[in-house]
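We store sequence, tokenised fold; for instance:
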Amino acid sequence: MAGRWLDLRWALSVLCVLLMAETVSGARDSSTGAHISPQFPASGVNQTPVVDCRKVCGLNVSDRCDFIRTNPDCHSDGGYLDYLEGIFCRFPPNLLPLAVTLYVSWLLYLFLILGVTAAKFFCPNLSAISTTLKLSHNVAPALTCSPHGVTFLAFGNGAPDIFSALVAFSDPHTAGLALGALFGAGVLVTTVVAGGITILHPFMAASRPFFRDIVFYMVAVFLTFIMLFRGRVTMAWALGYLGLYVFYVVTVILCTWIYRWQRRGSLVYSMPVTPEILSDSEEDRVSSNSNSYDYGDEYRPLFFYQETTAQILARALNPLDYMKWRRKSAYWKALKVFKLPVEFLLLLTVPVVDPDKDDRNWKRPLNCLHLVISPLVVVLTLQSGTYGVYEIGGLVPVWVLVVIAGTALASVTFFATSDSQPPRLHWLFAFLGFLTSALWINAAATEVVNILRSLGVVFRLSNTVLGLTLLAWGNSIGDAFSDFTLARQGYPRMAFSACFGGIIFNILVGVGLGCLLQISRSHTEVKLEPDGLLVWVLAGALGLSLVFSLVSVPLQCFQLSRVYGICLLLFYLNFLVVALLTEFGVIRLKST
């Protein structure tokens, strides 16, 4: 029990500490989407009038650049690039389609960066930290309720969604992106992904986990609906979101204990002496032993030789497995070509600890290099490099001191360790890799949010519709492919459970922590001002999809068929049509 509570506290506390460092300047009023505006006392200082940035396209071509540079509503608080200035000041007006094409291509590549960072660097280090802290590893969420899955696993899988939501909530101009993405991803996952799983592999759903997850998610959606209706978020309300997730984890833990106690009791009663009752560690050991053959042995040389430091470094920085390359399809190879620059950069900057390997992925020259580069990346990604370039005493930038300290530590580590044996404190690299990869994700998420807002200005779209479409699709596509793969491999119950368990973490922690950080910066309650009907359509559609599943699944006696999956897909298509018609003003409320 203590280990599992440590699991929860660690995941949440690390996220809080990491993102509290990302201070953002005071929020401004905005009229795009549902936005946040802290209530500041009135002052007598004359302020520049704020005009909706989307009106820039209605101006003369010669006036657009000055409008973007002088209008506060067009300024972004975070990020490395000013995308609006790039479109309207750097590109000639006749090359606007080219600029939009380049922005969309960069957006897709940023989604690729988010997926690669989370899958190959963030989650493995998170798993290594879990192993180091001796936390529970339950790998069968389809059969039992997994406390590990709703804390560390949910944090790892939902990292792009959470960071995108927190970045969007931190700026009043992009808060609509957060609501649109969280609600839009919820509708997408509970309809398209869940429906696709049942179409690929009809199955019998687990009743108790289904009822538990869908009820908790409906409560979270209902609370968000009330929050939008009230139009304000207090500290107690934000803490209530996080408290509800804690209560959800406690419920999952109790569910796990009750299920295991009932299962073991029934097995012992029916078979007093049975070798099938194994502990978690024994199950893991049996599972690993059953798949212990390493096909790579066929390609290993007969005679081994001592590699030089340069050879070890070159092999560690090589993101391409030539044996796998020859076996894969052309599609995989094409995608791998786009991933290679990202993977090389991440290998160079993010250490990864693998407890399953004999050497725990210890590469002495590369890990020593990480002691210099990783801290440098940390200070240059916090607040988009603001901390890194800050000069101490007006003389020495912070990044210079970080490089000097890292070089000294790397030199000591290099001469105090060997290539063959990882050092005793090698597990600390997992924490360094976790922090560095998290900040890479945060930096990429910031650029994603800024690009989407820029595209919304160009096409005069609200942040909410961009969130429920592009941002929700981009952040959910990886989970969708993973769940579909699980279904094809014969694990539809596991994939179906992931549809509801992961999005509970996203909405409760995304909204709760996002508003909590905003309140902590402004020291006052946060106002939510939903602009138009679209936000309510989005919240209502998510609620209706959950009610539909809550009613239809028990009516099918939990035997989910392809008809149920097709109905979910049709529901999402209808929702998308209604949302777009609402955005373009075809569907509107009658004014009284």
